[in-house]
Amino acid sequence: MIRVNLLPHREEKRKRRQQQFLGIAVFSVILGLVVAGAIWFFLDQQVEQQAANVAYMKGEIAKLDKQIEEIRKIREETASLLAKKQVVEGLQSNRSEPVQLLDQLLRQLPEGIYLKQVKQTGVKVNVVGYAQSNARVSTLMRNLGASPYLENPELLEIKAVLLDNNPNKRVNEFSMNISVKRAKAEDTKGAAKKAADGNPAGAKK
Hints:
Layout lengths: L6 H88 L2 H12 L4 E9 L2 E8 L2 H12 L4 E13 L7 E11 L4 H12 L9
Antiparallel strand pairs: 1-2, 2-4, 3-4
């Protein structure tokens, strides 16, 4: 009977399996480290990219904020210039208003009425004067209402007074408000031309 000792063969086979297992374990560890390193590198790149994007957005936002501030200043300057322009245009359009007002008052003033005071506040004009009779005041109001430059005559008060405390100089003192028509430039020029031609609306009576 032949006897074969298999122990060395088994021992060698076990060593080979251990070596294979160790190799696989080492390979797995290396592969895990590589994969972990790749993931870390990818995430690090993503973080850096996001940081760069955030920095870029902050820079763009700062530029936009600066542009918005400049636009705001430009709008304020534009609004200021427009306001000044409107003031200048208003002054230019109304600079002849006192002359036209006095001209119209004189043209519409009937005989027997004398003006004592004319005061203008905006478009409102207060007129104080003396009349020989109430009928002449009524005529004045009709004339002013028909004027192309004046409107809305309103009698505030009328009363009998003595001039210089002389009983023989009894007159009617009146106070009335009227409004100035501030029409467009073309209408104003037309009214002024009409007045200059000597054809006012409403004749003297």
